[in-house]
């Protein structure tokens, strides 16, 4: 990304792009603390081109089903989201609740119900207290500074809100892309819902908005794994309202690559924040695979390494255990041959067609950092990919084994 | 299995079937303690029909490559196995070492080198001290009581040897099937090699021995997962020497189903022992999936559940967290619909097309046992499968994060 003229916006949020307003309130959906935000609203002053990518889970929850239906026409204008209860695995009544969330938001904002995106995260199998959502919604004050409240209201086990924004110029106009996300670890009895919302004030042709989002997600959220479990409610949504003016960016438009880089940049930033805040995580683990025969191979190998419990425990223990990394690449399904492989950990080469002598004590010390980087060259082609994860710690086991019912 | 006339042999080993001799010694391959067995030999008094199933790992180690070559003709007569060093990821020299192991064993036993199966487990990437194997091999005394020594010599992080044997009668003859196995958890710097050896004195036609083994492995070792990592050296081998006499059991033979049941029974027993002795494991986790559209679907769902870190931590914490079980089934790729699913934990129904009220405190107490059984009915067909695993404990993280170099 460094070669593109993107500038990070310190403290940027989903309302950094012009024409977006957000806010949140305490509806008491699950958390009793009166200052705990759990209901959020995002609204655009004008209709947006919109797209979503969704979990492939067999039990896709009502929020996914309703959002997918509402975004089928490539158009949306608002998002309503809650934390506390995920409104999934609750039968037909859950579907009705998700529809009602869209209806309440639409009535309050004066937009069509099918222009509202619906998202829920929290306990699975519980009844969503839809009445509390209905009653609390009018308490939300929308503002161009409301992005952070939105980001806080969708948190569950997250310890910090995840936000990012970036700006770039194109032919005299300044465009912004903003985003927020919530955690992908799970905690009893919550499910691992990963939610991310991206906004931009660039004028985007509905014909390209889905590929814009799916390209960005393919390099970011889809390469994130905390523990391999996915939830019935995972979704990523992109809304583009065009409030910054200028030519509509459609297929083949000269600004499209820059816009794609900006959306991807924000998505990768959110992904790194999500990985670093994985449950019980002490370190961000970044695995870069190059020289793969295909992009799919590169992604397979990178994901297998970042998911391996043995690699993750070694990272936790500052153990430069290169064998575990190679073994994970070997069972990933990617095309890989022992004699063609080169591996570096924290910039130190440890294997090149065979073990390479290195200073183990020094490398172990170098592993005691907040970010660990593993780079594997497969020597099989030109494709590459990066995956993001975290170490596996005793804290992860503690958090997830506590019986809290 | 209870409906078949199979009788377990208490204390049974790979030498329970007639005509098999085994023994082991201390070669000092890695472990310095002089009473630590690390080199083992199994020999049949006569040539055997033989078959192997092997890891699909991209870095298949020299022991796999040599064994696969030697068993290509469906014939073998001996096994040489060592622990301490896995002889994998060591380049072309490792391949030569594996050949030499077969040659040394063949010379000592007076059999052909290509009738020798070779297996190694232990540290990856280290040089195998082949000279110590050569020098120690003559110290091994083979005996019909040597099965347990063999089982002990192949242990790495295993806390107990895994062995089983069963007998059955057929038209006046008594046949036995025996087996041993070693652990599938990993510990630094050892790799997760899973080795299993099965023997029988039944006369088996080489035309059926591979399917006999692969059917048994499909219901047992292939359904075992401790942490999802597989190693370059995993193998399961079956040798049948016919020492008990009788008609050769070939395709369509009336005794074939009984023999298959016996081999599967021993394989499942070893699999349960392996799961219970997984690294840091406190409990055996058995997941039974029924009502699946296909066997592949049943296996997918059962494996996903038994592999889920969230299910495994819940089992550790005595937490009857049915949501995590359903979520794992949902992302497994198996065909599954919320309204068709029924789930029981320790025999208590907790979900049937929707949450079912149950006594959570009582079920939590019932989870505090050495074996936890989860039963999921998908309502999509008639296929079923059982997967075996263990809980995820702080001890697993501790063992695998210790930096021991």
Question: What would you say this structure looks like, in words?
Answer:
Two copies of one chain form a homodimer. Chain A has 405 residues and is an alpha+beta fold. Helix content of chain A is 31%, strand content 26%. In chain A, strands 1, 2, 3, 4, 5, 6, 7, 8 and 9 form a nine-stranded mixed beta sheet that branches. In chain A, helix 7 packs across helix 9. Chains A and B meet through helix 8, helix 9 and helix 11 of A and helix 8, helix 9 and helix 11 of B.
Topology overview:
Two copies of one chain form a homodimer.
Chain A: E1 7-8, E2 20-25, E3 39-54, H1 62-70, E4 75-85, H2 91-109, E5 116-123, H3 130-136, H4 147-153, E6 162-170, E7 173-182, E8 195-200, H5 206-219, E9 235-240, H6 256-276, E10 284-292, H7 295-307, H8 309-316, H9 322-331, E11 342-345, E12 348-352, H10 360-367, E13 371-377, E14 383-390, H11 394-401
Parallel strand pairs in A: 4-5, 8-9, 10-13
Antiparallel strand pairs in A: 1-6, 2-3, 3-4, 3-9, 6-7, 7-8, 10-14, 11-12, 11-13
Helix pairs in contact in A: 1-2, 5-6, 7-9
């Amino acid at each position: 990304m460094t070669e593109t003229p993107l500038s990070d916006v310190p403290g940027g949020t989903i309302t950094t792009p012009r024409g977006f307003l957000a806010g949140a309130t305490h509806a008491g959906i699950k958390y009793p603390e009166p200052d705990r935000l759990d209901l959020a609203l995002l609204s655009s002053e004008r209709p947006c081109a919109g797209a979503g990518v969704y979990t492939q889970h067999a039990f896709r929850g009502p929020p996914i089903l309703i959002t997918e239906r509402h975004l089928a026409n490539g158009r949306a204008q608002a998002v309503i989201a809650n934390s506390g209860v995920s409104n999934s695995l609750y039968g037909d009544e859950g579907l009705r609740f998700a529809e009602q969330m869209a209806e309440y938001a639409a009535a309050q904002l004066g937009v069509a119900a099918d222009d509202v995106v619906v998202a829920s995260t929290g306990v699975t199998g519980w009844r969503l207290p839809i009445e509390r959502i209905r009653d609390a919604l009018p308490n939300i004050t929308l503002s161009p500074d409301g992005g952070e409240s939105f980001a806080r209201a969708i948190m569950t086990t997250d310890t910090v809100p995840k936000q990012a924004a970036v700006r770039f110029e194109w032919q005299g106009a300044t465009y912004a892309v903003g985003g927020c996300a919530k955690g992908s670890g799970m905690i009893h009895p919550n499910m691992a819902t990963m939610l991310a919302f991206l906004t931009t004030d660039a004028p985007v042709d509905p014909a390209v908005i889905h590929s814009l989002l799916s390209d960005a997600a393919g390099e970011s959220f889809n390469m994130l794994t905390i523990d391999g479990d996915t939830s019935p409610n995972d979704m990523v949504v992109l809304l583009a309202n065009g409030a910054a003016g200028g030519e509509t960016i459609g297929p083949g438009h000269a600004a499209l690559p820059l816009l794609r880089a900006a959306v991807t940049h924000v998505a990768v930033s959110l992904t790194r924040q999500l990985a670093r805040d994985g449950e019980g995580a002490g370190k961000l683990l970044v695995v870069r695979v190059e020289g793969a025969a295909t992009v799919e191979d590169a992604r397979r190998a990178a994901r297998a390494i970042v998911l391996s419990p043995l690699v993750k425990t070694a990272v936790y223990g500052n153990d430069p255990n290169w064998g575990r990394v190679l073994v994970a690449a070997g069972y990933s399904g990617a095309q890989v041959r022992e004699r063609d492989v080169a591996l570096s950990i924290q910039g130190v080469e440890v294997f090149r067609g065979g073990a390479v002598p290195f200073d183990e004590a020094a490398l172990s010390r170098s592993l005691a950092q907040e970010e660990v980087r593993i780079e594997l060259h497969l020597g099989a082609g030109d494709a590459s990919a990066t995956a993001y994860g975290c170490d596996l710690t005793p804290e992860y086991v503690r958090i997830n084994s506590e019986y809290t019912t």
